[in-house]
Design goal:
Elements: H1 2-47, H2 54-57, H3 63-81, E1 84-90, H4 94-99, E2 106-111, E3 115-116, E4 121-122, E5 129-140, H5 151-154, E6 158-168, H6 178-183, E7 188-193, E8 208-213, E9 216-222, H7 230-244, E10 253-255, E11 263-266, E12 272-278, E13 284-288
Parallel strand pairs: 1-10, 3-7, 4-13
Antiparallel strand pairs: 1-2, 5-6, 5-10, 5-11, 6-7, 8-9, 8-12, 12-13
Helix pairs in contact: 1-3
Amino acid sequence: MRYALIRTILITSTFLFLGINCQQKTDVSDQVFVKEIANRILEARSTNTHIQPISKTNDNVSLDKAYEIQIKLSEELSKTYGPIVGYKLGYSDSSSLEKNNISIPVYGPIFKDQIKKSGEIVHASDFHNFSIENEIVFTIAKTIEHKINSIEELVPFVKSVHIGFDMSEGIFDGPTTIVDCVANGADSKYFVLSKGLDPVKTNINDLKLSVMFGSSTVYKGSSNKVLGNPWFALKEVANDLIRRGYPLKAGNVIFSGKVAPAYKIRSDNAVGMYKGIANTFNDIYVTVK
């Protein structure tokens, strides 16, 4: 009986050791993979070159793994663009949520030096392929530490609402998926905000937003495309950020998502002035040179 007990303990210990050892190897392998993909994206962004989408070169990358890649990438991008000052939402319309089997929009970080003032110049050479959207933007008044259950509960946490340009650089060569968007931090390069308005006095329900390029309207849609109302998108993402340990803080800006398909054009054809328009908000401008 004694020897049988010792034998059982030894066998159990061996399997436990092998299990721990395999788990350690898996963890190390995952860390190497995350760092490798983050470095690949970083190089493409730094050199303004195309790479194959992550979803095409690596099978079965989960959404959680894409967020791990995003975090590693953000650590490096913050060295160039400064600290994270907010988030850009993506896949925030109901059809995209359903198509991708997700319940809330995805998001990526906005860095301090990515935010430009209205009227500033950005350079076409900063983009491989240029795209632009006009979105509803929120500025946070105070840290959101606890789950928000309603829009009424959320409003006091918002300092101001804006319209804003979201401009992306297009590093991926070919069709992308939600995994590519998240891994690359929601894809954006620069942002422009309008002057903020009082969130209590400003109705953003069914607000019409557009972008003019020269004399042509190249982007037009309603704020209701964002989960029926951008406030709902903000609530869901604020709660998810709390769950992940990154609560929204005072001064953070949140771009709530596109209201129409982004206007996309080759960067060498993107030169000119863009104007963002929405009733009650000041127009915003950016010039690509």
